[in-house]
Amino acid sequence: MQAQADAWRRAGRRIALVPTMGFLHAGHLSLVRLAREMADKVVVSIFVNPTQFGPGEDLEAYPRDLERDRRLLATEGVDTLFLPSAGEMYPEGYQTRVTLDRLPQHLCGLSRPVHFGGVATVVVKLIHIAKPHLAVFGEKDYQQLLVVRRMVRDLNLDVEIVGAPTVREADGLAMSSRNAYLAEGQRPAALTLSRALTQARQQVAAGERQAAVVIASAVSMIQSEAEAIIDYVKICDPETLEDVSVIDRPVRMALAVRVGRSRLIDNMALVPPNPPESAQGETP
Ligand code: AMP
252 and 267 in contact (C-beta within 8 Å)? Predict the structure, then answer.
């Protein structure tokens, strides 16, 4: 992969990397298309990275279908499908890990303490292997996108990080490989995430500024489905992920909800209608 990347770079080609864990869906393919538009050569990696799964998480159960993934990528004009093994990525004696101090202290990092260190580590490795000019990540995993952007800045990695909007099913459910775990009958519970976010966006657009009020409405919507068990419902600063109590600027709402054996996440920007009066300057 490095030799290929070096050859492309010598020929003046612009390289894009789309890291994935496979079991591809239309969300992944939207990232590939964006990469295609922004670069000459597109590398898609499929690697179910063991170091980002904690004990008792779904590493073994994670859905895989390499033949289907290959077919989907073949129709997208991907130049290289990079499929490292766990043994190649973490050979005997491997002992280095990239960690961040603050971003993982929020949202998913609290219930998945090793997750973002594993993500940061594998992403920096993939960047050094595929040597891309840009790498595309989905806003679906908003905290992951922030962690990657922060790491790239902090470690002076010479790569542009591009964020791509969340692709949803027609009923609003954010596409995810983990949706494969949903049993029939769990769809209404799974749909509470996008419904709660859409309701919150409407409340804020209509002038509600109290995060606690918006969160309470979301919690009661989610709890109306007995199978939906909340991990967190947060309204936070879109850069630091610190809690926000008054929505007087664009913020991010993020949710994690367990439905059966799936842990689903989703997020959305909440944008207040007008800047607060204090920020409008002098009134005539
Ligand atoms: P994964 O295979 O779940 O690790 O995801 C690989 C990349 O695809 C990550 O950058 C995700 O944020 C992105 N992704 C996953 N689901 C979606 C979606 N529904 N819409 C857009 N991007 C997504």
Answer: yes
- The pLDDT tens digits of the residues spanning 72-100 come to 999 999 999 999 999 999 999 999 999 99
Ligand 1 pocket residue status of 177, Cβ below 6 Å: yes
Candidate CATH numbers 1.20.1260.10, 3.30.160.150, 3.40.109.10, 3.30.1300.10; the one for domain 184-280: 3.30.1300.10
CA-based radius of gyration for the chain: 20
C-alpha 13: how far from its chain's center? 27
Mean pLDDT across the stretch 50-71?
Answer: 96
The CA 225 to ligand 1 mean position distance, Å, reads 26
CB contact set of 89 (below 8 Å; sequence gap of 6+): 47, 49, 122, 125
Report the alpha-carbon angle 149-179-111, nearest 5: 55
Cβ of 166 less than 6 Å from ligand 1: yes
Question: Are 2-164 and 184-280 the same fold in CATH?
Answer: no
Which residues carry out catalysis? 28
What residue ranges do the domains of the chain occupy? 2-164, 184-280
pTM higher than 0.90 for the full model?
yes
Q: pLDDT tens-digit profile of 210-247?
A: 999 999 999 999 999 999 999 999 999 999 999 999 99
Sequence-ordered strand ranges (E) for 104-261:
134-138, 160-164, 228-236, 251-259
Q: Which residues lie below 8 Å from residue 225, measured CB to CB, with a gap of 6+?
A: 188, 189, 192
Using the mean position of ligand 1's atoms as its centre, give its distance from the Cα of residue 88 in Å.
Answer: 23
Q: Taken in order 232, 238, 244, 250, is the CA torsion positive or negative?
A: negative
Ligand 1 centroid, distance to 228 Cα (angstroms)? 22
In CATH terms, the superfamily for domain 2-164 is HUPs (3.40.50.620)
